């Protein structure tokens, strides 16, 4: 690629969903835009690679809102509505483990049976039918003004309001609601969970894009380039230059400097503040806040190519208990807490959790004809935690568990690529490689979420580190939208540069 002209209105660091959404929208507003990506390939967590005719996601993704959420909003603002097609399948997911096996359906008419089956398999006593039903009803009908009141309270408090001291239901329903945020549900914001659950179940939009996860950032980045933005890959930003409290531009590896009136960083806040800008440029109170931010945990991943289609649902959500003598119907909140503690200590937990979308079931072109692609992950600690057992053992455990849940998996396996937590940390470039760099804990959402504007004129943070709301990729894209509005307004009002 040719060297871009110097002197940009906006330089954006990162091409994940935060950077690509923001980049496209500021370019649409007529700003001279530069987008920089350290990797050879764009997309961040939603990037991909190709192997033997399979197109494989770098991350492990399902998308909760399809075009109803921020992805649709970005396309509408760009004048390319529905360029991304979100697909659903008849059976969206098999939920299996802890003594139950349930199909999450696509169609609304199948939901009454889904709930009936759920109550039956969870053994919800008759006397709790009404309160548990009320919980599910409230989840999809609660007005947003009410939801906001739950922002600073954890998911377990919300669930306990309905199921009281029933620890089994607390463990199961809390786990279901907290799943979105890759943190323990007793730390996750109930407001954020209800808001996300209401949209995903109310609108029934859990889906996967035709063309794979990378289709989303690639549509945004193509639009940005079509609007005149320059995109440079293999360009790691090593410094955000600041003088007298005002951003000057960015320096990339090799020393080249790009002047810019505004800089948007989509790496983690700690990386931006302590590594790219330098803490001396921020007031102590701000530095202290960033130092104390909590991140989510992360995952070990395997990508499995199968020589034939052996699994029908769109995804597998499940868990396997290693101790065969343990009665899975007796899993309680305490067991779930113990499992999380084990992960935080770098130990393989007693329950191997599996989250495994099957991209080729949504879009068969992601695998050669007749073959199947499964992307799977299991929760693991961020790279600041030392593993007690080697990464390969975590992934062996995951594949063994999946082989039990998907009969014939190992027999039909063509290959299985493994990605440990260090790989993903290195790929996304965020310190210690969390799934969500500013976790959606009770004290880090809503009005307590870090702001997109910073104390430095012309410096903005977007992606999963600041602003936005919702589940992972959508949180990042929503933040990208918000950031673009702020940058455009600040530049128009002469507040920067
Ligand atoms: C295993 C896994 C499973 C997940 N599952 C889901 C899911 O099912 N559904 C969901 O919605 N979300 C999920 N998430 C979360 C979601 O992927 C992220 O929250 C979201 O995509 C983050 O977007 P982002 O734009 O903030 O950053 P990223 O996608 O991480 O992109 C950041 C980009 O910035 C680049 N970069 C960083 N530093 C520099 C630098 N110095 N110079 C240049 N470039 C730089 C990186 O290379 C990267 O491309 C999952 C995440 C993981 C890791």
Description:
With 497 residues, the chain is an alpha/beta fold. The protein folds into 3 domains: 8-48 and 63-85 and 212-294 and 429-492, FAD/NAD(P)-binding domain (3-Layer(bba) Sandwich), CATH 3.50.50; 108-203; 295-421. 35% of the residues lie in helices and 21% in strands. It contains 16 helices and 18 strands. The protein has helices spanning 17-28, 70-78, 111-122, 129-141, 144-148, 155-163, 167-178, 190-203, 215-226, 269-277, 284-291, 333-344, 359-362, 391-405, 421-428, 472-492; strands at 8-13, 33-36, 48-51, 54-57, 86-87, 91-97, 100-105, 208-209, 230-232, 237-243, 246-252, 257-265, 298-306, 315-321, 351-357, 372-380, 413-419, 459-461. The strands form 5 sheets. Strands 1, 2, 9, 10, 11, 12 and 18 form a 7-stranded mixed β-sheet that branches. Helix 1 packs parallel to helix 2 (70-78). The chain is globular, with a radius of gyration of 22 Å. It starts with 7 loop residues before the first strand and ends in a 5-residue tail after the last helix.
């Amino acid at each position: 690629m040719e060297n871009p002209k110097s002197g940009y209105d906006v330089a954006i660091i990162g091409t994940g969903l935060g950077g690509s959404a923001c980049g496209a929208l500021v370019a649409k507003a007529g700003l001279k835009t530069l987008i920089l990506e350290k990797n050879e390939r764009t997309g961040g967590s939603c990037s991909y690679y190709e192997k033997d005719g399979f197109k494989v996601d770098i991350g492990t993704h399902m998308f909760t809102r399809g075009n109803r959420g921020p992805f649709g909003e970005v396309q509408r603002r760009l004048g390319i509505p529905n360029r991304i097609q979100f697909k659903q399948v008849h059976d969206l997911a098999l939920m299996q483990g802890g003594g139950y096996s349930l199909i999450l359906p696509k169609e609304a008419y199948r939901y009454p049976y889904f709930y009936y089956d759920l109550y039956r398999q969870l053994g919800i006593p008759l006397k709790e039918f009404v309160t548990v039903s009320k919980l599910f009803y409230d989840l999809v009908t609660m007005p947003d003004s009410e939801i906001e009141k739950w922002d600073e309270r954890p998911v377990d408090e919300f669930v306990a309001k309905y199921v009281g001291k029933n620890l089994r239901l607390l463990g199961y329903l809390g786990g279901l609601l907290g799943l979105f945020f890759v943190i323990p549900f007793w730390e996750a914001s109930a407001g954020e969970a209800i808001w996300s659950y209401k949209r995903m179940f109310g609108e029934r939009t859990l889906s996967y894009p035709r063309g794979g996860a990378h289709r989303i950032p690639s549509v945004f980045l193509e639009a940005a380039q079509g609007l005149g933005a320059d995109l440079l890959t293999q360009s790691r930003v090593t410094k955000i230059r600041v003088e007298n409290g005002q951003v000057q531009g960015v320096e990339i590896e090799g020393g080249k400097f790009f002047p810019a009136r505004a800089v948007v960083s989509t790496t983690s806040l700690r990386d931006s503040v302590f590594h790219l800008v330098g803490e001396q440029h921020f007031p102590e109170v701000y530095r202290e806040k960033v130092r104390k931010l909590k991140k989510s945990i992360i995952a070990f991943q395997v990508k499995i190519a199968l020589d034939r289609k052996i699994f029908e649902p769109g995804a597998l959500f499940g868990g396997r208990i290693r101790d065969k003598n343990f009665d899975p119907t007796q899993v309680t909140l305490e067991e779930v807490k113990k499992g999380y503690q084990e992960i935080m200590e770098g130990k393989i937990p007693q329950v191997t959790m599996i989250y495994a979308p099957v991209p080729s079931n949504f879009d068969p072109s992601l695998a050669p004809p007749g073959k199947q692609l499964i992307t799977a992950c299991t929760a693991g600690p961020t790279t600041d935690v030392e593993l007690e057992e080697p990464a390969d053992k975590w992934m062996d455990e995951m594949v063994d568990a999946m082989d039990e849940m998907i009969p014939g998996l190992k027999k039909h396996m063509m290959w299985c690529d493994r990605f440990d937590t260090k790989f993903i940390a290195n790929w996304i470039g965020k310190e210690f490689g969390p799934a969500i760099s500013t976790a959606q804990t009770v004290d880090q959402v809503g009005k307590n979420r870090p702001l997109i504007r910073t104390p430095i004129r012309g410096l903005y943070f977007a992606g999963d580190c600041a602003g936005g709301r919702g589940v992972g990729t959508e949180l990042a894209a929503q933040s990208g939208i918000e950031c673009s509005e702020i940058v455009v307004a600040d530049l128009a009002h002469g507040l920067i540069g």
